[in-house]
Specification:
By secondary structure, this protein is of the alpha/beta class. The protein has 7 helices and 6 strands, in the order βαββααβαβααβα. A hairpin with a 3-residue loop joins strand 2 and strand 3. Helix 3 packs parallel to helix 4.
Length: 194
């Protein structure tokens, strides 16, 4: 965003985000995206915070400057895929610390979390702008098996599309990220680059 604002970045680090190969999995892409996005926002003099959730919720609340970049980068590099705490738990713990009209940026593969729609509704009810960046586990898996698809993967793909439509209907911006595309293209297409 061009104006100064508070941004809280949530990174999904649940066990499901570790599926794939060691270098090609949703968590790996999420961490790289979070480092890029938070660094850019902080260099533009925004206040930025970070919440990671896996088997626990860890938070670094909004601040500014180079030190915040270092703190957040260290926290992200030390994040591992484990546990199964949903987004709603992370949001409920962070809510008391979010400023009014804060932008909430969620980086999640959207897999295996049945609280996503309720969490978006809770944040939208409090007038937070909600943006999702979603590295697709399905696309990563499809690449690993060289493009072969099954009826099961087609059904999972349809369920994912339905979830994305429902999140958008609740007022969230959702960018479905095919990880073969550079991050800046996805953000630009979503109207968030710059």
């Amino acid at each position: 965003k061009e104006n100064l604002c508070d941004v809280m970045v949530f990174v999904d680090a649940r066990a499901v985000t570790g599926f794939g190969s060691p270098l090609r999995n949703p968590l790996e892409y999420s961490v790289k995206a979070a480092v890029s996005i938070t660094t850019h926002l902080l260099k533009c003099r925004n206040e930025v915070g970070l919440v990671t959730y896996n088997d626990e919720v860890k938070a670094i609340f909004p601040s500014i400057g180079e030190r915040q970049i270092q703190i957040m980068t260290s926290a992200l590099v030390g994040t591992y895929a484990r546990g199964d705490l949903p987004l709603m738990t992370a949001v409920e713990l962070a809510l008391p610390h979010l400023h009014p009209r804060c932008t909430v940026f969620v980086i999640s593969s959207l897999d295996g979390d049945d609280t996503l729609v309720k969490a978006v509704q809770l944040m939208r009810d409090r007038n937070y702008e909600v943006v999702f960046l979603s590295p697709s586990l399905l696309d990563i898996e499809r690449d690993m098996v060289e493009g072969r698809t099954s009826n099961r993967s087609e059904m999972i793909h349809q369920e994912r599309d339905n979830l994305i439509s429902e999140l958008r209907a609740r007022g969230a911006v959702v960018m479905d990220w095919d990880c073969r595309q550079p991050l800046y293209r996805v953000l630009d297409k979503g109207g968030l680059a710059g």
